[in-house]
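To whoever picks this up:

The nightly regression suite flagged BPL/LPL catalytic domain-containing protein as changed. Nothing in the input moved, so I suspect the structure step. Input below, exactly as stored in the fixture:
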Amino acid sequence: MLLTLFYMVSTWMQALKLSSLKARLATALSCDPKPSIMFSIKPPTSEHDVGKDINASGINENLLSSYLCSNKNEGKLMDLIWCQGDKRLCSIHPQQIIDVNNWLLYPFGKTYFPLIMNNYGRAKLNDESQIHVLIEADINYFNPNAFAKITKLEDYGLLVTWTADKSFAAIMETDVDHMSKLSIALMHNQCFINNGLLLTRIESIEVTGKPCSYNLNNSINLEGKKLVGKAQWKSHMDKLKLFSKTAWHVSQNGKSIEVDGFPGIIMSPGSKILTLSMPIILQIDSHCEGNYVDDDKTLFKSSSSVPSTPPPTPASATMTSGNADLHLPPNFNISEASFDKHTSTSATESADESLKTFSYTKIAENNTFVNLNTKLSEEISHINRASKYSPGKKPSSIGNLSAKPPNVLIYSDSAATRDNIKCVLKQTLNQDKYVIYTLTSSEARRDVWTEQTNLLVVCGNVDSEIATQLVNYIVNGGQLLALCSDALHTLLPSFKTAEVREHELVRFSYGRWKNVQMMHHIFCYQASPVKTRFSQDHEDVKTATPQTPDSAHVKDKNGKVHTFQIKVLGKEETWQTPSIVLADLPSSGGRAVFSQIHLEADPSQYEIEESKLNSLKDSNNARLEILSDLLSSHLGMDVKPQTYIEPTFNPGFFLGRHELKLEMLERLKNEIKENEILETPNLKLQFCGNTTKINPASSTCLPVMLHRCPDNFSTIEYFENLNTKELGRLVIYADVMTSSMDVVNGVKMHHGLAVLPRQQTQGRGRNKNKWLSPKGCAMFTMQLHISMQSYIGKHLPILQHVVGAAVVRAVRTSPGYEDIDLRLKWPNDIYLGEKIKIGGLIVSTFVKLHESICNIGVGVNLSNDLPSCCINEIIMKYNEHHGTKLSKLSYERFFALVFNSLEYLLDIIENGDIDQFYQIYYDYWLHTDAKVNIEMDNGRMEEVKILGIDSYGFLEVQGQNGCIFMVQPDGNSFDIFKGLITPSAQR
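Regenerated output under the current build:
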């Protein structure tokens, strides 16, 4: 009892200390300009001093920053946050910078070189506070006992690059929370890291440059898990230094070099900069009870002992199958689980993606990019391919169906301008139809996004390579809006430039809008220059402007000439120069609108110039109306109706058998606070009985009525169609929610609980992506409690495929609806036919005791005509085509059918009939024998054939030489089948 009490007090003090330190670090890192945060430990002077305190006063100059930082001499102490003995935690100004051009990429996966670790990036990182951190360790001291008390770096982030010279150094992707946890571990004298290295410094830094890449093979002894004796230690350190020296030569010479003494290991110059993004397929929240062990034979082990490495995310999990140990795939991380970064055209997360790349792991041959346990390939290489199962009957065609993806992409050379454009588009476009994303410079240079974009908005300068892509996009039918961009001059070379004064307020006219005062671009592009500036209002003299040509000839990337029809839509009043120009390509339907007026600029940007501010305020309604008219009349976009009304929050309803409701509330009684409120991270749920004082419904509070039923949800129809034992037997329904995922986030409620929103205001997808949630869309979140010892519990990534198959099967096994052409696109999209995406899903998981608590979020276009097409529309088309009289699927019946189907599939899997599930899955999927391209580590493209999915749901493909690959999405934002697959080792 005393030990338990001591442990509770110790845990509470630890959490308090962590919270305080995290707050201080977050405050320091929010400063502008951003500083560096550094924890340093003065290295011992001899082996006998290892682990001992060495008194020192103040911060020694050589400890203020790392010798690896390019601006170390500029570093000044900003704040001493913590100090004890030889350890210091402080902030440094300016932020320290490290150039990694002569560093090496750190392998992704289970490695013995350069360090023994599981570099899977399993720590769940907060996107908003991600940072790069330098990890620096002393290589001059060997302690044979250090392995027993190491702090595992993989518990705190993902190592991305490394080097070894005077010390061993690595750079890790982490966040403020995990840096705080690592600092506390070091404060508690846990200063040895992987390989028994003595850590001397961690420091938040800015990274520049591109680290070198290399392959591993059997010429390096990677078998030993521990370095025993000084001879092995020195040999290993010599290898690290040799590799780092080779990287320096590769960086200097700019060409690939074979590492001296290691035949077949080729080191190549870096090709990609490091970005703060980790490849994630499945993550499991660390909201778990009990400790994890990094044991080759054990998945989870409960213990009451204090963990040797304090509170961070758990150690890596291992699965046992038969007599062989199956290690989780590299991207199986212990943090939040979401599958796929983007979803469908409506209730699914992002747009219908334009370029989604893959991470892959080679599971054949020796030239692996990451050193994985070879037993994995022996277990999964050929067991679950689509070719093993006979394809199902292909549904009959229902005419030509087409729907443009709802993507609106913004490309800008200025972050502030990009935010302005996004803001004004949200005010203007129909929010039920479009999802707005940013197109990066590197993405803009690739042509795979062009087919998946409804509208591209460009502002500012574009280089020649991007300009070529813009031409290619337009000539293939794309719609472009260029706001104050030199794209006008680049795409229509006949327009020359006449410079004007910066921040010029001019009067212009467009259509019915006359003499509107707006800000003009610093350059005025026209057929030929007339003046170097616009006239002031008091200047009466006007000079004739050369006539704008009626057409322009433009070459695409293949050298083919296209003739654009040119029309001036708006003119500046004084000099009659073109303010808004339309370039139309009738042959393809491609169009471009060029505005030399700052239609994206809000008047508040000019608060310091009162006269301009007042004029722009007077013109603001006209600005929005003009932009709306350009988008609708000339670019074919659907703009927001003037009668649009924001959704209103109202109380929700708790539906189901009274005994089940009481059972759930009884289990939650310790978590339900005063006034019957249960708090989740983003929402307060209030379970309201007859005497409860009901709080107003809002975006942060959802009252749930226990003893009432909704007016617009038929409980009779729902429960009459529901044939399950557990799934969907309890329902929380509301007309409007922020997101159904918010209701169950982080709380173990009830197995099979369904959350049904009629409409969402902040529909959630992975990595901050938005789900479009128009009325008529069928959205739900279901919570499943899955035993870690069950088949699915041991193969959690497969769950997303089970859910996707359940949704499609729910419709296509209903009598009469067998030929409704619903399909599955890997990994988690639901399609009508082969082109129209109508649904998708995410899965968020945390572990509690011996269960995975899986929150499944699904959105499917059921009855909504926006943003593209829906199931009931296709049913009506099917009736017209085949003379049938199938009824539309009601909201209530659809959910019941899906839950029936999901429970059926879960039951057959748990009963051991996994082959039956694969037969169903392959009956519905789109990819049998499809071919895609893999971008190899050296940039070479290789065409591969899709074989099927493995036991975890990852894609199996086969190269032209017969080599088998496992393929997994790496979190990029576009279409995975547009042809680019990137090795995770390059990230």
